[in-house]
Amino acid sequence: MFLYESARVLGYVVLLMTTIIGVAGLVGAALCVSTRDDAFTAADRQQKWVWTGMLVASAVAMFINVQLLQWVGMVVIGLYWFDVRPQLKDIVNGETPW
Q: Where are the transmembrane segments (predicted)?
């Protein structure tokens, strides 16, 4: 009985985490749309609409119950939030060391 309950709780935790990451992907896509086009060029990144498409597709993948797609979506969303977004933010705010 204990194993069944703990597995059920773990399933809810995983569902909650995938939902949070999916919402983070949608928020990232909205922020991406509101960022200037030239910031992506200055950061030497893919174009604005490429990142927007990747983030929306990753968010959708988080809500589909295919584990491989969810892992790829998590990587793309994490890459945007922890690598691309801080660099774009610095460029837009004029805080680059250039």
A: 12-33, 54-82
Residue for token digits 């490429």? 50
Instruction: Tell me which DSSP letter residue 84 carries.
Output: I
Phi, psi of 95 (to 5 degrees): -105, 25
Q: Global pTM?
A: 0.89
- List the domain boundaries for the chain: 17-90
| Burial zone of 57 (CB within 10 Å; 0-12 exposed, 13-18 middle, 19+ buried) | middle
d(CA 28, CA 20): 12
Helices 2-33 + 48-63 axis angle, to 10: 160
Measure CA of the first residue to CA of the last residue in the chain; give whole Å: 61
pLDDT tens, position by position, 17-68:
999 999 999 999 999 999 999 999 999 999 999 999 999 999 999 999 899 9
